[in-house]
Amino acid sequence: MSDDDGRRLISTGSPFERQAGYSRAVVDGDWCFVSGTTGYDYATMTMPEEAAGQTRNILATIGKALDDAGFAMADIVRARYIVTDRADVPAVFAELGKVFGEIRPAATMIVAGLVAPEMKVEIEVTALRRGRG
């Protein structure tokens, strides 16, 4: 979906997007803002129990949203990570390092509660399109 000024809305088809009134991502010019994403596999609406598996699902969902928007993971300049339990941070870091090890966006890790007890990780990113060339 897009409007006259070029703003585009990207959806995963998650029922939460319509229910809560948000887009998975919003593209505005060379910027892409990806909403906080949790560990659901939106095709099956299932979520792994462990934080590492949730993180892998989250990164896959973010990667697809960025790709649908015409961006790449390498375009990510800012990331916010929320975990519900400090004990899960090492497992989450290990998964993040696999994807962001070379990208190295500015990042913040927060320990806080999420909206459903099964959610252990939520990630939000902002991407700036780099010149392609």
Fold and architecture overview:
By secondary structure, the chain is an alpha+beta fold. The chain has a single domain, classed as RutC-like (60s Ribosomal Protein L30, Chain: A, 2-Layer Sandwich), CATH 3.30.1330.40. Helices cover 28% and strands 28% of the residues. It has three helices and six strands, in the order βαββαβαββ. A six-stranded mixed sheet has the order 1-2-3-6-4-5, with helices on one face. A hairpin with a 2-residue loop joins strand 2 and strand 3. Helix 2 runs parallel beside helix 3. The mean pLDDT is 92.
Number of helices: 3
Number of domains: 1
Query: CATH class, anyone?
Result: Alpha Beta
Average of the residue pLDDT scores: 92
